[in-house]
Please model this.
Amino acid sequence: MTTGGLVHSIPALAAPASPGPVRVAVRCISHKIPGPPRERVTTMGNLIYQYHWGRDMDQEMDFIQTTGLPHLDVEKVYFLLDSAVLSGAKLDEDAIPILAYRWNGKTLKKRKIGTHLRNYIGTFPFKQERTIASTSTPGKTTAERRDEMSEAELDEHMRYIVFQKIKYRRNVSRQEREWLAGHPEQFDGIMREHIARRRWHGVPLWDSQELWLREHDGDASLETSSNLDLMDRVLQQHQLEIHQEGSYGRKS
Model:
């Protein structure tokens, strides 16, 4: 099977699955899906359909939805694939067979379908996006919540926000940069955590992380604090990477 210019294949079933309605749930770690990150949903969908039906996904028959962030590395991702030609007759969704797997980067490993998984899948209507009605009332603005925080609470909040923005490839705001300027040890701690996480999973570091690491002589455990110039250069590189990823996404 060819996906995104690369050839990906897994052993097919001896006998293809029946053409009747079926749901396939797959759990994996995002970076173990082969091919370009922006094509991971399609790649995984095609791998699963090749495995079961000997074909790629067909938009007339198949529907795929995900939870998680497959385009980012080191993320837990769940896929739910629904396949059937809907004739207009009402389906008994509780009677539709469910198959569950774990993708280990090379093949699909069968999983047991427990009550929790079956009930969770049941919250997703067959071949439809799940919608959740919001009953909450408008809350306080971010600025209002920050004004009510103690200094320790604000530091914890800001560290969490910056950590998440770097993890999920979002721009760090001017206000967050100002906070980091007064807390260089927090910036270094955030960088150490992200670098350790990617190294543990065997995922290449981003250029911004390589830049930070070079300035620490390649040793993330060194306690040398980053100066403001290094912090600015790392965050500028981080912002450039986000822009490049967005450009790639528009071309796909």
Notes: Residues 1-7, 248-252 have pLDDT under 50 and may be disordered. The first strand starts at residue 2 and ends at 3.
